[in-house]
Amino acid sequence: MLLEYLSGVIYNSNKTHLNISALPQELQEFGTGLQYFCNAVIEMQKAAQALSKGDLTVTLPSRDNELASPLKSLHASLKHLTWQAQRIAEGDYSQRVHFMGDFSHAFNTMVEQLADRRQKLEDTITQMKSKSASLEQGNLLFASLMQYVPQQIVVIDRNSGKVLLTNPSAENEIAADANYINYFAQSMATDDAERYGRVTEIVWEKADRQRFFEAACYYAQWNGSDAEIYVINDITQSKSDLEKLEKFAFYDSLTQLYNRAYGMILLENWLREKRKFVLVFADLDSLKYVNDAFGHHEGDLYIINAGKYLQTFSNDAIVCRLGGDEFMLVALDHDNSEAETKMEQIYTNLSQVPILEGKTYSYSISYGIVAVDVDDTRTTSEILSLADDNMYLNKRMKKKIRAKARKKEKPHV
User: Fold this and answer.
1) pLDDT of residue 297
2) CA angle 240, 254, 320 (to 5 degrees)
3) How many other CB atoms are there within 10 angstroms of residue 393's CB atom?
């Protein structure tokens, strides 16, 4: 009875029960103590399962559950960490974590980098505004100094549109395209009260090239005539540098795949946009064993190769490394059956990677699939949690298959 009760606590805790009165008299006191212990374990198990899915609203074990103290401490730490992450999202980069070991260092480094990048961006914006504000409209002085200004400067007659003066930077652009200034004039054609002095970002798509500009228009009297002065700044390279900086924040340095931050944003966007897609939650089998037995270099190769093979799912599949041995793959317009077929092929191909030749371990991947339709109302957390559950079902199934295969290979005595 006691063994059956213990088995029930482990595998079916919702329905298990121990009838104390049915035990022999000399075991009833022991049975009562065992039942108390198991109830404490069941409480911890339920709380731990909820925490593993990100549910911080879970009811914690009762006060008299002494076993649950570390779990309660973890719950408090996660709630505080969530609060800190919310503060960071609102721009408070003073937040630091000092109670979670190696994670604290990684978290604090990330916050410091975000703060540094924002400061650099703000400094760049301030510098650009300062340059624009420092332009003088004095005709003679302006005409003399504009030759040395890196921005493109063009003075045109307000009534006829005739070009009155240009600096060398603008001359090169006008020589290459006669409609160059007209394009900016048309792009900025608004009411004068709103037009003058305002910096406008303009995108110019020409042939196969896309260029980005910041342009401002100012009113001036030029030799007794009404004139407009255009100050044009080509920010194509700066924008490209900024995009590279943003990409750096969304890429995993080991695999060069997208990271968790990008994956979560993408998933939220697709759900909000009512996209039809499949999500695959993948987990590498025995990565810890490879790291411990053969070194982290071999473990890194395992992770890198798994990421490469996951990318063969389809040309439009987006693969993100969530961290450690976990990956998320999303692909538009796939159903569950198609995804299952492709993932089984990836599982087979990964196990036959040429790099494994001569090695005493193999590559294996477990996965869970969730199909999302256009009318799906589940949240990001619910979809990821279901995919995680499906992945563990897949992992257990593969373990059973391998166990049966090994049993068949054993010779009969």
Assistant:
1) 94
2) 75
3) 11
SS3 of residue 200 by DSSP: strand
In this structure, the strands spanning 258-259 and 318-323 are: parallel
CA distance 244 to 349: 33
Return the structure tokens found at 381.
């957390």
Between 44 and 377, the more confident residue is 377
The DSSP result for 311-341, as a single string, is GGG-TT-EEEEEETTEEEEEEET--HHHHHH
What is the reported pLDDT for 282?
96
Q: How far apart are alpha carbons 378 and 383 in whole angstroms?
A: 6
* pLDDT, tens digit, 9 for 90 and up, residues 308-341: 999 999 999 999 999 999 999 999 999 999 999 9
Q: What is the DSSP code (8-state) at residue 251? A: B
Q: Report H helices in 134-188.
A: 139-145, 168-176, 180-187
More confident position, 383 or 66? 383
Pick the closest to residue 190 from 170, 216, 165, 222 (CA basis). 216
Tokens of 6: 């213990």
Task: Locate 144 and state its tokens.
Answer: 């003399």
Alpha helices in 134-233 (DSSP H): 139-145, 168-176, 180-187, 192-195
Q: How many residues does the chain have?
A: 413
Beta-strand ranges (E) seen in 76-208 are 152-157, 163-166, 199-206
Q: How far apart are CA 358 and CA 142, in angstroms?
A: 75
Which 3-state string (H, E, C) describes 265-288?
A: HHHHHHHHCCCCEEEEEEEECCHH
| pLDDT at site 136 | 43
DSSP string, 2-50: HHHHHHHHHH-TTT----GGGS-HHHHHHHHHHHHHHHHHHHHHHHHHH
Rounded to whole angstroms, the Cα distance separating 74 from 51 reads 9
Please give the Cα distance from 317 to 314 (Å, whole number): 5
In this structure, the strands spanning 209-222 and 225-234 are antiparallel
* Rounded CA separation 92/86 (Å): 9
